[in-house]
Amino acid sequence: MEIIGNVNMIGYGLAAIGSALGVGLVFMAYINGVARQPEAQRVLQPIAILGFAVIEALAILGLVFAIFL
């Protein structure tokens, strides 16, 4: 059996699943917090967006490493 392609992409696929789970957890916590205290939405929204940005940046960094290594 011959494997054609790059094994790095399999690793990136697994990392992308982790990133998707992370984004889901961030927004789950945000929705849960706003549902419990609607007046805290202005405080929680920037924190959720920052968490989303960090998780996506790590996913993009993983893609770059998978392509160039």
From TrEMBL:
Site positions for Reversibly protonated during proton transport: E56
Record's subcellular location: Cell membrane; Membrane
Main location: membrane
Keywords for the protein's UniProt record, in alphabetical order: ATP synthesis, Cell membrane, CF(0), Hydrogen ion transport, Ion transport, Lipid-binding, Membrane, Transmembrane, Transmembrane helix, Transport
Bilayer topology term: Multi-pass membrane protein
Family annotation (SUPFAM superfamilies): F1F0 ATP synthase subunit C
Taxonomic superkingdom: Bacteria
Matches recorded under InterPro entries: ATP_synth_F0_csu (IPR000454), ATP_synth_F0_csu_DDCD_BS (IPR020537), ATP_synth_F0_csu_sf (IPR038662), ATPase_proteolipid_c-like_dom (IPR002379), F/V-ATP_Csub_sf (IPR035921)
Keyword Transmembrane annotated: yes
TM ranges: 12-35, 47-68
Domain V-ATPase proteolipid subunit C-like residue range list: 10-69
Task performed by this protein: F(1)F(0) ATP synthase produces ATP from ADP in the presence of a proton or sodium gradient. F-type ATPases consist of two structural domains, F(1) containing the extramembraneous catalytic core and F(0) containing the membrane proton channel, linked together by a central stalk and a peripheral stalk. During catalysis, ATP synthesis in the catalytic domain of F(1) is coupled via a rotary mechanism of the central stalk subunits to proton translocation.
UniProt record similarity statement: Belongs to the ATPase C chain family.
Protein name: ATP synthase subunit c
Originating species: Nesterenkonia massiliensis
Phylogenetic classification of the source organism: Bacteria, Bacillati, Actinomycetota, Actinomycetes, Micrococcales
Gene that encodes it: atpE
